[in-house]
Write a structure and sequence with these properties.
heterodimer, A: four-stranded parallel β-sheet, globular, B: mainly alpha, 10 helices, 7% strand
C-alpha cells in the first residue's frame, strides 16, 4: 500500500532525526511513501488568525492527495494530523462546507471530495502493520531501557474527529507500540500534560513552565528517555531543554527520542541511520545502555 | 465596561454597584455563529475547563471559565483587549471534559478570529500567517536546506507553494468569500 508522506512545516527544518528515522523504519516495515511536492502547511498555524483560510489550506492538501489517487496520508506532526483529519471529516459530512470549500478551490482548478484518510505515523503502523507483526521483526529487544511516553495532544484530540481510535484520558496505542520494542514503561503523573508549544510565541515563560512540569516528572521517575511523536513537543522538550535548565536552574540531560528512533533501534537499524547525530540532547546514555 | 462603585446605603450597610454600560449583550450570539463555538451558551460554569487547563496551572491570568462567562455577559472590548485570550494552548483537555459539550478550544479560537477581525492581533500570530502566505510554510526552505537534505538522501522541497499565497490573496481582496 502507498501512503503520501505529509511533512508539514516543522519536521523538515527542526526534526531531521524524525524524518530520517520515520522513513527508514517505514521502509523496514514495508510501507511505501509517495512524495507530493506541492503539499504546503496544513493550516494549523493560521487557524488562530483566520480559521477559514486554515481550512482552505487543509482542503487543498487533501485535494492534492485525491488527485493522485492516494487513499491515506501519513502525517508525522500531530497538529497536522488533527487539522487534516478534522478538515476531511467536515468535508465528508457537511455538504455546505464541501460546497463552500470547492467554490474557493475552483479558482485554483482543484476540487476536494473528502475521501482521504489521515493517519499519524504511529497510528498507521499500529493499525496497518499491527503489534504482532512488528514484534516478529524485532532484532534487538531493548530490555535494558526504561522510557516515559508522551502521546501529546493532537495525536488523540479532539477525540470526536479521530473516531475514538485511542482514548485521550487513558492513551494506550503509543505505549503499546513502545512496549513492543522490549523497553520498560515508566509511568509518571504528568503523562497527559501538554507540551505548551502553542503558547511559546505568545508568552515564552508560560510555555517553558508548562514543559518544565513534564521534564521534572519524567526525571523524578527515573526514565532513561522520553518518547515523543510530534515535532512541536520535541522542540519543547529537546531543543528548549537547555533553556529550561538555565531559566529554572535545573539539570535534566534527558534524551528525547522520536518513536521511530526507538523502534528503529529495536529493528536493528544503526543509530546514525536513525538521525541520532541530530538529537540536540545527546542520547549516548541510551545507546550505551543497549550496548551500542 | 463595568466599573465598581462602593458606598453605604441608608442603613449604613456596605454595598458595591457595578455599572454595565458598554456591555454588548449580542456578543454571545456573535461568538456562537463562529464554526465550533455554537454551544457556548450551554455553559453552566462548572469549571471543569479551568481545572483541566495546563496553561492555568502555570499562569493565573488565563482562565477559560472566566473568559466564557465574560463572553456571556457581553464584555466584548475587555475580552478582545486582554492578552490572555491568546494564551490557549489548543490542547483540547477542557473540550474533552466539558459536560455541556461546549467546544472550548474552538470557542477560544473563535474569539481569536473575532479579535483579529476587530483589529486586535497578536504580533507573533500575524508573523506566522505572513510567513505561510509568502512561502506556503512556516519556515522558508533555502538552497542550503535542500543541499543538506540531498546529502542525507532526503527528497528536495519546493521553496515556495504559490497556490497558498493565492488563497490568502483572494481572501483579503475578494468579498464574495
Amino acid at each position: 500500500m502507498k501512503y503520501a508522506l505529509f511533512l508539514g512545516c516543522t519536521v523538515p527544518v527542526r526534526g531531521t532525526h524524525y524524518e530520517l528515522s520515520a522513513r527508514k523504519v517505514a521502509n523496514r516495515l514495508g510501507l511505501e511513501f509517495v512524495e507530493i511536492e506541492d503539499f504546503s502547511c496544513c493550516g494549523f498555524p493560521v487557524k488562530a488568525t483566520n480559521a477559514e483560510i486554515a481550512f482552505l489550506l487543509a482542503a487543498r492538501n487533501l485535494s492534492l492527495a485525491e488527485s493522485k489517487d492516494i487513499e491515506t496520508i501519513c502525517t508525522l506532526c500531530s497538529s497536522c494530523t488533527s487539522t487534516l483529519t478534522e478538515a476531511a471529516k467536515r468535508i465528508k459530512e457537511e455538504y455546505s462546507t464541501k460546497e463552500r470549500v470547492n467554490k474557493q478551490l475552483s479558482h485554483l482548478k482543484r476540487e476536494v471530495k473528502g475521501k482521504t484518510k489521515i493517519k499519524h505515523f504511529a497510528r498507521l503502523i499500529y493499525e496497518e502493520i499491527g503489534l504482532e507483526n512488528i514484534r516478529k521483526l524485532i532484532q534487538r529487544p531493548l530490555n535494558s531501557l526504561k522510557v516515559a511516553v508522551h502521546s501529546g495532544c493532537h495525536y488523540l484530540k479532539p477525540s470526536e474527529v479521530f473516531e475514538h481510535f485511542d482514548e485521550p484520558e487513558i492513551p494506550r496505542t503509543l505505549k503499546e507500540l513502545v512496549e513492543v520494542t522490549g523497553t520498560f514503561l515508566v509511568e509518571y503523573p504528568e503523562e497527559k500534560n501538554c507540551c505548551g508549544g502553542a503558547t511559546m510565541g505568545i508568552d515564552e515563560m508560560t510555555g517553558l513552565r508548562i514543559a518544565k512540569k513534564k521534564l521534572d516528572s519524567v526525571k523524578e521517575n527515573k526514565a532513561d528517555a522520553l518518547i515523543v511523536i510530534c515535532p512541536f513537543c520535541d522542540v519543547m522538550y529537546e531543543a528548549n531543554q537547555k533553556k529550561i535548565e538555565q531559566t529554572f536552574n535545573e539539570n535534566y540531560a534527558l534524551p528525547i527520542l522520536y518513536y521511530p528512533q526507538l523502534l528503529g533501534l529495536a529493528l536493528g537499524i544503526e543509530p546514525k541511520e536513525l538521525g541520532f547525530q541530530f538529537n540536540t540532547v545527546k542520547a549516548d546514555s541510551v545507546l550505551t545502555k543497549i550496548g551500542l | 465596561m463595568g466599573e465598581g462603585n462602593r458606598g453605604k446605603d441608608v442603613k449604613g450597610q456596605k454595598f458595591m454597584s457595578v455599572k454595565i454600560t458598554g456591555f454588548d449583550s449580542s456578543f454571545k450570539y456573535e461568538v456562537a455563529r463562529e464554526p465550533g463555538a455554537e454551544n457556548i451558551r450551554f455553559c453552566f460554569q462548572c469549571g471543569d475547563c479551568t481545572a483541566s487547563c495546563p496553561v492555568r496551572e502555570v499562569e493565573a491570568r488565563y482562565n477559560p471559565r472566566k473568559i466564557i462567562h465574560m463572553v456571556l455577559l457581553g464584555m466584548k472590548e475587555r475580552v478582545f483587549k486582554s492578552d490572555f485570550v491568546w494564551l490557549c494552548a489548543a490542547c483540547y483537555s477542557c473540550q474533552e471534559r466539558c459536560p455541556q459539550n461546549v467546544k472550548i478550544s474552538e470557542v477560544m479560537n473563535a474569539l481569536k478570529n473575532l479579535a483579529v477581525r476587530s483589529g486586535y492581533v497578536h504580533p507573533s500570530l500575524k508573523k506566522q500567517a505572513e510567513l505561510i502566505q509568502s512561502f506556503g510554510r512556516l519556515y522558508e526552505i533555502e538552497d542550503f536546506d535542500n543541499k543538506r537534505r540531498q546529502r542525507l538522501g532526503l527528497p528536495a522541497l519546493k521553496a515556495k507553494i504559490e497556490e497558498v499565497g493565492k488563497i490568502f490573496e483572494r481572501w483579503t481582496t475578494n468579498d464574495e468569500q
